[in-house]
Amino acid sequence: MRAFNEELEEIIIQALGHEVRRTILKIIASSESGALYTDLMTELGLPTGKLNYHLGKLEGIVEKNKERRYILTPLGKQAMNILNSISQNIRSDYEKYVKTAQFAQKNTLHPILKSLIYIGIAFMSLILFVWSFITYIVVTEGAPFIVYILLPILIALGIGVLGWLVYALKKTPQFLKRFEKRWLG
Question: DSSP letter at 66?
Fold first, then answer.
């Protein structure tokens, strides 16, 4: 029985886990006779492929009746009850918790910070290209001994910084999240 309950929870959470699917459920629930495919497409403004994708994800939650209208199944009604209970029990002191939860669940960087990292990647790539070109000239033309020591160190540092920037873009380290929370809101 426990496995069934966990499966049921997972199905309902997945159905409610996307804004488009929540909207589809709300549209269908708002009409006693259900909603036609064209009604959903018009109201959502989605292309056919995306609407079909989301309707496919909602199988078992919604179904077509004999009039070819989408209606809620008993499981869909349960999902709507959960969605409605969330909307009805909102208190003003929830705002700070919602912001904290949004920040914790967000897995991407703020667009400004992301742009700065992209600029850093482009800049480091350019610097590495210039240092590599200088290395080529030093090797072919000769240079003081200190240059032979400094250039490999600079190139290694540049590769390290470039690698770190790519890592920061992909993984969003914790300190970047804290920076983002403090300075970018």
Answer: T
Alpha helices for the chain (secondary structure H)? 2-16, 19-30, 37-44, 48-57, 74-88, 95-105, 111-141, 145-171, 174-179
CB-based burial label for 39 (10 Å; 0-12, 13-18, 19+): middle
The whole-angstrom separation of Cα 32 and Cα 15 is 20
Task: Read off the DSSP letter of residue 58.
Answer: T
End-to-end CA separation in angstroms for the chain: 44
Question: What CA–CA distance (Å, rounded) separates 124 from 122?
Answer: 6
Q: What is the pLDDT of residues 4-46, one digit of tens each?
A: 888 888 888 888 888 899 999 999 999 888 899 999 999 999 8
34 vs 185 pLDDT, higher one: 34
The residue type of 7 is: E
Q: Is 63 helix (H, G, I), strand (E, B) or coil?
A: strand
Q: What gap in Å lies between CA 169 and CA 8, rounded to an integer?
A: 36
